[in-house]
Amino acid sequence: MIIDDSAANDRAIRLGLIGLGGVGALHFAAYQQSLRVNVVAAADVDRSRAALLAGTPTAFHDDYRSLLARDDLDAVCILTPAATHETIAIDCAASGRPMLCEKPLAVDLDAVDRMIAACSAAKVMLFYGASYRYLPAIMTARAMIAAGAIGDVLVMREQVIGGAGLAQYRELGPLHYPPGGPGGSGLGLMDHGIHLIDVFGWMCGAPVIASSGAGNIAGALPRPEWLSMTFANGALGLLTYHEGSFGTELPAEGLFTNGAGWDANGFVAAGDWSATPGVIHVHGTTGALRIAHYANQLIHFDAEGPHQIALTGRPSPLHFATQIDAFADALMGKGGEISASVGRRALRIALTAYPDNA
Question: Of 127, 151, 249, 250, which sits with the fewest C-beta atoms within 10 Å of its C-beta?
């Protein structure tokens, strides 16, 4: 389904949001920076979250099905926990609404296939919420890699190990990931690493040809999580996670962030100190990149030493506005769609850390 371009040029895309939890609230706030969309309504089962809409014309619904019954919506964003995505997406498709769905698309591949089939039958777009592709540091790093700034990519890696021990460890819970299946914390393999699975291949321009690992099981004590990926160009991707231990970063290794996001100790607002900033390291044959994706910093290393790279664009969480602009373009047939197949591929690779669920 493509929205008529001539009609859309006269107004913003009329959007409904489903889910106003932590990430949903950030999406809603960021969308206020976009001229391309107008958030007409939002739904959440927690009625107290209606307060997030105060001072805006956005209507609140405590049931997403009543939101879908409206006749003034062009499209929908699904921002609820992963385990709820399938049912909501199928209902959105039945209503004839194209949708952007947060990651992961679902908790298993069969559910994703049912979502894709429902959207295909209804002829509506299922746009995958690969939001890291809109972070300025990652976008710039990708362009630099494509331009040959670090030669051939050899290794891409991210590590998030920290917290305050097992007693303080908090998994996301059964609304996100049903007990006994893939799960874990907000900075674990399933909920966070799935971003890196996508952007590693996107940055180096090659698909994953082999992967293996170990991931946390929902409802069980956390274990060290890891995923190793081999890409078609010979590059190696490595992810390592554990939020139930302690970090080893020294004070000098932290930084003040230029964007908001998460580190091993929780959410960090823009401008605040992050003791354990999330960093992607990309090593090549002639240089390397240190990408602080949430902190919105990028450093290029070569034979002459380190160089800080100037960044433009919207840092986190305003990158959600950049993403919703791309969704609006896709709805009007202007390209830029991130198809559900991208999300399915990322989930398939993540599930190789769970052989019983792959």
Answer: 250
- Which one is the CATH code of 132-315: 2.60.120.650, 3.30.450.20, 3.30.360.10, 3.90.550.10? 3.30.360.10
Residue ranges covered by each domain of the chain: 13-131+320-338, 132-315
pLDDT band, residue 6 (cuts 50/70/90) = very low
DSSP 330: H
Give the three-state DSSP class for 285: coil
**What dihedral angle (degrees, nearest 10) is formed by the CA atoms of 107, 53, 3, 105?**
-10
Tokens of 181: 């299946």
Reported in sequence order, the residue ranges of 62-215 that DSSP labels E, i.e. its strands, are 75-78, 99-102, 126-129, 153-161, 208-214
Nearest to 126 by CA among 329, 319, 327: 327
Side-chain-side CA neighbours of residue 16 (13 Å): 29
- Are 298 and 290 contacting, i.e. CB atoms less than 8 angstroms apart? yes
CA distance 17 to 145: 35
Residue 262 bridge partners (DSSP):
267
Please state at what angle helix 22-31 crosses helix 319-331, rounded to 10 degrees. Answer: 70
At the second CATH level, the architecture of 13-131+320-338 is: 3-Layer(aba) Sandwich (3.40)
